[in-house]
Amino acid sequence: MDCYTANWNPLGDSAFYRKYELYSMDWDLKEELRDCLVAAAPYGGPVALLRNPWRKEKAASVRPVLDIYSASGMPLASLLWKSGPVVSLGWSAEEELLCVQEDGAVLVYGLHGDFRRHFSMGNEVLQNRVLDARIFHTEFGSGVAILTGAHRFTLSANVGDLKLRRMPEVPGLQSAPSCWTVLCQDRVAHILLAVGPDLYLLDHAACSAVTPPGLAPGVSSFLQMAVSFTYRHLALFTDTGYIWMGTASLKEKLCEFNCNIRAAPKQMVWCSRPRSKERAVVVAWERRLMVVGDAPESIQFVLDEDSYLVPELDGVRIFSRSTHEFLHEVPAASEEIFKIASMAPGALLLEAQKEYEKESQKADEYLREIQELGQLTQAVQQCIEAAGHEHQPDMQKSLLRAASFGKCFLDRFPPDSFVRMCQDLRVLNAVRDYHIGIPLTYSQYKQLTIQVLLDRLVLRRLYPLAIQICEYLRLPEVQGVSRILAHWACYKVQQKDVSDEDVARAINQKLGDTPGVSYSDIAARAYGCGRTELAIKLLEYEPRSGEQVPLLLKMKRSKLALSKAIESGDTDLVFTVLLHLKNELNRGDFFMTLRNQPMALSLYRQFCKHQELETLKDLYNQDDNHQELGSFHIRASYAAEERIEGRVAALQTAADAFYKAKNEFAAKATEDQMRLLRLQRRLEDELGGQFLDLSLHDTVTTLILGGHNKRAEQLARDFRIPDKRLWWLKLTALADLEDWEELEKFSKSKKSPIGYLPFVEICIKQHNKYEAKKYASRVGPEQKVKALLLVGDVAQAADVAIEHRNEAELSLVLSHCTGATDGATADKIQRARAQAQKK
């Protein structure tokens, strides 16, 4: 135990700090870190070095080199810097490298040195140049803060959604502040800067002077400041050698430490552990590293070479030319188990397991002692928790073996925590490997989440490892393997040294019908890389036409898009392509394209009927479709024309079209309509009233109602209205007028071609039974019974039915007989039926 704790260093009475090696760096740096611009991403992220920045002692012809390494020193990218002078480097939360230039331009590069985009911090920054810059992280994303040559600050809290904010001016500021940093309070970014002995806080509205509570007297300048990883705490290094630590709101002091060194440190960062009450700050000078906190003593380390500090969620990473180390507070579970002479349940369980492996009876003694205290569950939990915070796999295994041993003596200990820790440690050990180079701690891993870790493996193009982790953790395909394969395919299409056919085949063989993978997204990436043919080949594997068509249109393969849309049977999709084609092609080519696609042509005609009538006419003309062209002109004559001359002209055009289509009936009907229109206009002029747009029958009826019987008869002769139809029209019109005298004259003018039953029915409809009886006697024998029943003469109807000996008529009369009134008639019918049956 005491050997294991040899690298533990106490800070006061309640906390230990340890520093252990993550990697032995083998990155073959040709220059010292102090001669480079350095940026290291948190959560075990990559390291960027801009070698040979613009220094006076360097030759002007020597161009800087931007190198990107993994945390283990494995090279990821190297490129010659060809842009302007760089002031600061920093990594975004998405592991994109932000390079802030002197002119205010920010260039964004990927993990492998691929240029992504650039943006400017505004004209004011361009005019005054950049003196200093900070890249910071908030809950909204990654931000950039700029100090200009005019000693003004400009910042953007989220580079993904760039909104520049010019901070208020500091009164009387004539030179650059001695130090400054970005604070995030209440979801808003603020600037804290030091000018001599004064501190100023800049927010979006004002500049206010602030004073740290309990600051030691005699301070004439602040040389360095550091904000914690979570932006909750602040540390200030003064020219008197004191380090003040308190809340970031500057309302509460935590502690103050005198380090007896007045020289400004190179770096100062916080070193704290989540849910720990201990607060510590790590201060680095050229060859000295000091850990200070709420204790009279400090922990000091000698730095053998130039080093760089990277603040993390639960500690500090320290890398140099040769090593990469991690400094952190020893977690409570590890401290309980491993501290000297510990009698904690976890320590006893670990000893019991070791003695058990030696087949010693002491194992039983240790185990009994834990059980007697009722602390076996606590012991197992301590070992599981401590295993998560260990970096060496051997110690992890030892602690997990102890936990497994203790579980055997518990009846109801849930196995979830043990199994989950085993899985998490296996994942962590895999990504900590030197060739992967992501030295995550357990706390960082839980904060980062497995999805983000997988995204970072994908960014590093470590697709096999990412897939193995997904399969091992049994993640849903859509969130795991499918997503990673899609990223792999998007990377594959960028390999321009492989033919389109081979790339498409390889992607299809690997992906197949994997759920959650969109071939259209992969094709879009291929098109973005300038590989249009590859994109088309990939779209052949996309089962959803709705995803194929938009990309084909974007690639200007409209005819292929039209074919795909028609194959899908989705009319909305076809309309989308048609409208795109209409805007893209000239009119002739567009119509020729439609002629080769009957379904598309039919749909476009439907569209034109409601939206573009002139285009519809052009389509019919091009196809020599005279029948539809005639119908079009007929509709147009009523829809567009108000003048009678225009209507007649349109109808004449329609008639000519029908003749060309050899539709004699439609042509004649159209000509008759023209004649009727002219006649209706003449009738309006001579008689007044409304005749236009009436049908032929309505025109005749209107004339009869107006008392113009001769004109009605003449119109009937002119348009060859059959006598039966004319009689019906006149009968109906006279009845509506209740002109019974004229109706009687009309009935006697000649023999009725429609018989006299309609006269009876019309009179009854008009509630005139008296007039109806006049015509009932004139109705023919076959309809006599019905006519008599209509006028209510049931007895005579019975006599006629008996005379006719017609069973149907007898039943009809019987159905009209009412009990009391027509009893005798009903008996007569029954007797007639009985006699008929005897015969």
Protein model, in words:
This protein is an alpha+beta fold. It has 33 helices and 29 strands. A five-stranded antiparallel sheet has the order 1-2-29-28-27, with no helix packed on it. Strands 3-4-5-6 form a four-stranded antiparallel sheet, with no helix packed on it. It is elongated, with a radius of gyration of 49 Å. The model has no long low-confidence stretch (mean pLDDT 84).
Determine the structural class based on helices, strands and strand pairing. Answer: alpha+beta
Fraction in beta strands:
15-25%
Q: If you consult CATH, what is the topology of one domain?
A: Methylamine Dehydrogenase, Chain H
Radius of gyration: 49 Å
Strand order of the largest sheet: 1-2-29-28-27
Number of helices: 33
How many β-strand runs? 29
Please render the helix and strand layout as text.
Elements: E1 8-10, E2 16-24, E3 37-40, E4 47-51, E5 65-69, E6 75-80, E7 86-91, E8 97-101, E9 105-109, E10 115-120, H1 123-128, E11 130-138, E12 141-148, E13 153-156, E14 165-166, E15 179-185, E16 188-195, E17 198-202, E18 207-210, E19 222-227, E20 233-238, E21 242-247, E22 253-258, E23 267-270, E24 280-284, E25 288-293, E26 299-302, E27 307-312, E28 315-320, E29 323-329, H2 332-338, H3 345-357, H4 362-372, H5 376-388, H6 393-407, H7 416-432, H8 442-448, H9 450-459, H10 463-473, H11 481-492, H12 500-511, H13 519-528, H14 532-539, H15 545-554, H16 558-568, H17 571-584, H18 587-595, H19 598-611, H20 613-623, H21 626-639, H22 644-660, H23 664-687, H24 696-705, H25 709-718, H26 723-737, H27 740-749, H28 757-765, H29 769-776, H30 781-790, H31 794-804, H32 807-816, H33 823-838
Antiparallel strand pairs: 1-2, 2-29, 3-4, 4-5, 5-6, 7-8, 8-9, 9-10, 11-12, 12-13, 13-14, 15-16, 16-17, 17-18, 19-20, 20-21, 21-22, 23-24, 24-25, 25-26, 27-28, 28-29
